Amino acid sequence: MTIALDTDVLVNWAMEGTAFHRAARHFVERQLRGGERAALTPSVLNEFVHVTTDPRRFSSPLGMKEAVAKARIIWAAPEVIRIHPAPEVVVRTFELLNSLSLGRKRILDTALAATLELAGVRRLATFNRKDFEVFPFLEIVSPRR
Fold first, then answer.
1. If DSSP codes are grouped into helix, strand and coil, which group holds residue 102?
2. Which residues of the chain have a pLDDT value below 50?
3. CATH number, domain at 65?
4. What was the pLDDT predicted at 134?
5. Which helix (H) or strand (E) holds 70?
6. Is 87 helix (H, G, I), strand (E, B) or coil?
7. What domain count does the chain have?
């Protein structure tokens, strides 16, 4: 079985001292030990690099080289299924934005949901359950806090 990982799970997994670091670590390890594979998109890894290097979010952010190195290791891991956006993702994103009456601050989450839907991935691990509950084709899995 496959479960997509939202950026917040990766950030909490990688950054010691975050509120959900332990929960993210245990969740990812438990899922992978159980034979699941983690699905990731380029946008999730790009956001991971952006967030983990932000000094406004962390007192000790990662340096750009360190963040990119971690992202490369994650992307290349054998347990990871790399999901590239299908050509139809833009149209599907716009359809979802309109049909669900979502605003501009929901574009990136909607694009992620559309990418997963078109790739046939139906489960998403995130600490931000409310951001994704609106998408009827996704089963949201929240790591235990």
1. coil
2. none
3. 3.40.50.1010
4. 98
5. helix 64-76
6. coil
7. 1
